[in-house]
Amino acid sequence: MAAVTALLVLPGLFLVGAPAGPVDAPSAHPLHSQLNHAAPTTSPHPVTSTQFADPRKPNIWLITVDDMRADELRYMPRVRAVIGARGFVWDNAFSTFPLCCPARASMVTGMYAHNHHVLGNDASEHGGFYYFMNHSHPANTLGTWMRRRGYMTAFVGKFLNRYGEKNARQVPPGWTQWRGLPGLQAYSYFDQTWNVNGRLVETRGHNTLNVTKLSRHLMNNSGGKPFFLWSSYLAPHAAWDPGVGWHLPRPMRIDATRHVGRSVLVKEHDLSDKPAFLQRRLRPLSARTWRRVEEHRVLRARALMGVDRAIDRTIGRLASQGLLSKTLIIFTSDNGYALGEHNIPGGKELPYEQVTKVPLMMRGPGVPIGTSRVLVGLHDITATILEASGAYAGRTQDGVSLLSIARDPGRYLHRPMLFEGGNVLGSELRLGRSPWGSRFFTAIRTQRYVYIRYINGAYEFYDLRTDPNQLNSIRGRTSIRYQLAAELRRLRNCDGSECNTSFRLRSLVKQERFGHHEFSDNPSMCAMVALGS
Questions:
Q1: Which of the two residues, 502 and 426, has the higher pLDDT score?
Q2: Between 387 and which of 187, 397, 401, 481 could a Cys-Cys bridge form, CB atoms 3.0 to 4.6 Å apart?
Q3: Where on the phi/psi map is residue 245: left (φ > 0), alpha (ψ -120 to 50), or beta?
Q4: What pLDDT score was predicted for residue 436?
Q5: Helical H runs in 196-323?
Q6: Domain residue limits, the chain
Q7: Which residues 6+ apart lie within 8 Å of 525 measured at CB?
C-alpha cells in the first residue's frame, strides 16, 4: 500500500495533536480537519444542503450493509421503525447475482450482471474492481450521472472488491467526495486506512463508527448542492486483520455481549432431492461446525446492532437539521448469506432464498407508506435514484424505479427475477467451477416457483408456497417446469425492457404424463431449454 500521509485516532475521537473537546463539536470532529484540508468546499464557510438545495432535487442517502440476510432485520428494530414503518418495505427483494462485486456493479449501472459483465469478485472469476474499470465503462455509471445532474456525489466505505489493491489513492469517476477503503482495509472492523479524495488517512475505531461520522460530515458539507451519498457499511461481513487473516465479524464493544434471540435456521438432514454433485460436496455438518455457525450468527447480529443504532441517530440528526423531509433514504444489502442451511456452513453465490433475498426499504419524498410482495432487485435501486433526482442514465437500464412500482404494484406483480452465478458456485466452499466468464447457474424466481438450471445440466425446482425453505426439489409438474425453463431461456440474456415483461404460467388443461424424467428424456424440450453459457 502507498505511504500514509496522516494519522487519526478515533477511540478518543481527536486528531493527533489536536485539543480535546466534545465529540460532536465541529472543531473536535475526528475527521473534520482532514476532510476539509483534503477537499475544501467552494466557500470558506461550508453551507449545508438545506440552505440552497434545489427543492426539486431531494437529497439521496443510499445505505448498504454487507452480506446481510433479509431475516436479519429482526436485529435492527430502529431501522424497521425509522425507515420501514415510515416508508415502503419490499418483502421480496433480491440480489440477482448474490456476490459482493457483481451485486454492487448492478447498483452503479442499473443492469443485470450479464450486461455489466462483472461475474465475480476478482479477475480469476471475471470480476473485481479492475475488471469493472477495464470492461464496464466506469465513467458511465450512477456517480457520473448524478454529478452531471448537479449533485454533490459522495461515497463512504467499501466499494467494489479489489478496489485500491494496485493504487490505494485512486478515485473512481463520478465522485465529488471519495472516502473509500482500499484493498483489505475494507474488511477491517477496527482501525482502517482511508482514501480521502486521493489522500491516505489512518484512523482508529470501528468501521461502523467511522462510516457514520464521515457520512454525517458530508451531509452537512455539500457546498449548497443536494447530496447523493452512498454509505457502505462492513457489517455483518467477515473480518480481516493483519497477522490474523479472515475471521468472524467484530461488533462494536458496546454490542459485544448484547443478547441475541434463538436461531431460526432450518436444518436440512436429507439432501437426496439435490443434484448429485451437490450431494457429494454438502455433507452433514458436525456438532463442532454447528457451534461455529451459531457463533457466526450471533456475531453477525451484534455487528448489525451497531449499524442499527448509527442509522437511527443519523436520521435523528437529519430531522433536527430540517433535512429529513427532503431526503430519500434507501436501505439494503448487497446479498444474503447461508448459515447452515442445506449443509452450507457459510457462503453466498448460491441460488437459495437465504442468499438471494435481501432487506430493502425506503422513505422520503414521494414514497408511500406500505409494503409489497412484488419481486424487485438491486438493479431497480438505480432506476429509483434516477427517477427521484431527474438524472439521465447513459446506458440502458434493466431495472424499474421502485417509486413507480410502489405507485402501481399490480403492473409488475408478475415480473419474474433472474438469478445468475459466476464460474464458481458457492463463494467459500467452491462447490463447482465452470469455464472462465461462464455462469455456473441461472435461475428464474416467480411469486410461487424458483427453477435453477446448472451448467452441467442438473436442475432444482421448488414450490415456495409449500416449501419456502427449499428442502424438497420437485421432480414432477413437468409442464410448469418446462414453462419456467423456456422463460429462463428468454430472460437469461435479456436487455432493458425485455427484463421486465410479465410472465404467467399457462393453465394445465390435462395432466402431464412425463413422470419424473429429466429434460434429456424429451429431445424437443431439451432443445427448447438448452442453457449452456
A1: 502
A2: 401
A3: left
A4: 80
A5: 207-219, 276-281, 287-320
A6: 6-11+48-412, 417-528
A7: 482, 485, 519
What integer pLDDT is reported at residue 426 of this predicted model? 66
Q: How does DSSP assign 318-362, residue by residue?
A: HHHTT-GGGEEEEEEES---BSSGGG-SSB-SSSSHHHHB--EEE
Cell numbers representing residue 321 in the block: 437539521
Looking only at Cα atoms, what is the longest distance across the chain? 81
Residue 26 buriedness (CB in 10 A; 0-12 / 13-18 / 19+): middle
Residues 214, 179 contacting (CB under 8 angstroms): yes
* CATH class of the domain at 6-11+48-412: alpha beta
Q: Of 69, 84, 92, 89, nearest to 414 (Cα)? A: 92
DSSP per-residue letters across 441-475: EEEEE-SSEEEEEETTS-EEEEETTT-TT--S--S
pLDDT tens, 420-468? 998 877 666 667 777 888 899 999 999 999 999 999 999 999 999 999 9
* CB-based contact 83:363 (threshold 8 Å): yes
Query: What whole-number distance in Å separates Cα of residue 234 and Cα of residue 305?
Result: 13
Q: How far apart are the C-alpha atoms of 192 and 210, rounded to whole Å?
A: 9
Which residues lie closer than 8 Å to 21 by C-beta, 6 or more apart? 14, 27, 28
The count of other CB atoms within 10 Å of the CB of residue 196 is 24
Half-sphere exposure of 225 (CA within 13 A, CB side): 21
Question: HSE (CB half, 13 Å, CA atoms) of 407?
Answer: 9
**pLDDT at residue 298 is higher than 90:** yes
- DSSP alpha helices (H): ranges in 123-179? 129-135, 142-148
CB 305 within 8 A of CB 73: no
Cα–Cα distance for residue pair 119/114, rounded to 1 Å: 8
* Contact of 375 with 355, CB cutoff 8 Å: no
- At 117, list the grid cell: 459483465
269-279 tens-digit pLDDT: 899 999 999 99
For the segment 316-334, what is each residue's pLDDT rounded down to a tens digit?
A: 999 999 999 999 999 999 9
pLDDT at 529 over 80: no
In angstroms, what is the C-alpha Rg of the chain?
23
Q: What's the CA gap between 402 and 176, in Å, rounded?
A: 26
Average pLDDT over residues 126-136: 92
b/e map of 279-304 (b: 16 or more CB within 10 Å)?
Answer: eebbeebeeeebebbbebbbbbbbbb
Phi/psi for 89 (5° steps) reads -120, 130
With a cut of 60, say whether residue 23 has pLDDT above it.
Answer: no
Tell me the pLDDT tens digit for each residue of 26-37.
Answer: 333 445 444 444
When the pLDDT of each residue in the chain is averaged and rounded to a whole number, the result is: 86
